[in-house]
User: What shape does this take?
Amino acid sequence: MTRATRPDRSIFFEVYALDQAIGRLLREAMAGGPLTPEEYAVYSVVFEAEWVTPTEMSERLSMPVTTVMERVRLLESRGHARRVAHPEDGRSYRLVLTAAGLAAHRQANQRFEVAYRAFLDSLDGDESRAQSQLARLRSAAERAARGARAQK
Assistant: This one.
């Protein structure tokens, strides 16, 4: 690809800038609420699944298990989550939100939805195409990461 046909910025740069822009939008919309945007994402994984193992959270969030464990400790220290024995794996557990965790998630969701609706309005009804492209990018990044690990 020649300089004339190559975009000025890499996809990585654009995704990074997109992450920053969405982060700013969410921080502003969720300011003063019970959860930060990062915490809301973690709570949402548990909320959507109803219960989840740390490994499943790690996969869903593309986050190292050690980082997930820090988040789990925070949820538990707030009384927003509790551990439930895993019925098939005695070494693992499932994390569930408590009533207080559900209330915090619900309050944060109200602020999140305001930002998300504004974002969707700016897409002019092209949400499904954007979702498809994002899924394609994430899949490509995961395949590339697996390939890089295999070459080590």
